Structure formats: structure tokens, C-alpha cells
Amino acid sequence: MKKTLKNEKRWDEKNIRRAARVFLKAEKEKGALIRLLDDAVHWLAFLLVIFACIIVDFFLSISSIFLAPLLIYGMAVALGIMFGWLIEMPLMEIEKLDRDKHFLLRVALPMLAVLNIYLLSGVKWAVALFGNTNVPMNPFLVGMTYGAALIIPGLAISGIGHFRKIPLKIR
After folding, report:
1. pTM as predicted
2. Do residues 81 and 65 share a domain?
3. What digits encode the pLDDT tens for the residues 105-163?
4. Contact indicator for 64, 72 with CB cutoff of 8 Å
């Protein structure tokens, strides 16, 4: 935050220190309930994402009975990128507020993508068992496709942020 504020022309070292003291004082004065709610909001959002991924897995498994495999992979990519962006939006805000939580959620996202492969396999098995039908898709490949698409928006945002930090020298 200090580096960002220093880049602003209106912020000098004295103003940065004063703002940091105000933020630290406000953080210390937060009640236990408010701190608990701050943490709960982040993790509740992540649990909602996991629940949404389970719904997507179920939808992909059911759709695979009726659709061609190429359409299933296309849907997996489209849904993965869409949910990836929905996950990235709050993560960008969390990054501004709290680096530790942002890092934990950043690590948990690839783990969610790997977990998604197993969820898709389980849903495929349940659909085949209870639907008394054979589902013509490879859940491992569809899960990998969806998981990779889920991570693409985060990689894109990280790449854009990295390239923004490179100074441009125009002569």
C-alpha cells in the first residue's frame, strides 16, 4: 500500500504514516464479532463457490447424457471461465484489504479445481447408477478442462497486473 500511495503525487511520507496509523488504530478497535464476521464473509464466499462448482458438475454430468462430447468440453470451458471471473472479482477486493486471506484463497482455488475432477467423477457415477444409463464422457478430462478454465481468469489478472508494473520507456 505504501508503494502505491507514494506513486500518487499528493501523498508524501508524512501523510502515508498518518494514514497507516489511522488504519492500524481502526483495526485494533474492531470488536471480536466484527473480526469474526470479516473472516466469515471471506470463507462463506468460498463455500458458496464450492457449492456452485458442485451444481456445475451435476449440470455437466446430466448434460453429457444428451449432448455431444465436444459440446460438453465447450460448456466446461465456458462455465469454468465464467465462475473463474466470479471468483476473481471478490478476490481482487480481498487482496486490497488483507493479503493473508487473499493468499489462502489463491492457494485454495487450484485445490478446488483438482477437487472438481473428483466431484465430477462422483456425480457421473451417481447419474449413471441412478439414471440407469451410460454417460459417454471422461470425467477426468472434463474435470481437468473445467479446472483449467476456472484458473484462467486468475492467471490473466495476475499477468495483467505484472505487466502494469513494468515501466514503459517512451523516447
Report:
1. 0.63
2. yes
3. 667 777 777 777 777 777 777 777 776 666 667 777 877 888 888 888 888 877 766 55
4. yes
Q: Which of 25-29, 46-50, 89-93 has the lowest mean pLDDT?
A: 89-93
Do 7 and 75 share a domain, yes or no? no
What is d(CA 51, CA 58) in angstroms, rounded to the nearest whole number? 11
Rounded to 10 degrees, the C-alpha dihedral 137/143/148/152 comes to 100
The span from the CA of 38 to the CA of 31, in Å, is 11
> For residue 34, what is its C-alpha cell?
466484527
Q: Mind giving me the DSSP string for 26-68?
A: HHHH--HHHHHHHHHHHHHHHHHHHHHHHHHHHHHHHHHHHS-
Tell me the CA end-to-end span of the chain in Å, nearest whole number: 30
Judge whether residue 81 has pLDDT over 60. Answer: yes
Count of residues in the chain = 171
Q: Which residue bears the cell 454417460?
A: 135
Are 9 and 59 found together in one domain? no
Nearest C-alpha neighbor of 84 from the set 56, 120, 122, 43: 56
If asked whether residues 154 and 80 sit together in one domain, one would say yes
- Residues 109 and 87 both lie in one domain: yes
Question: Could you tell me which of 80, 75, 84 has the C-alpha nearest to residue 156?
Answer: 84
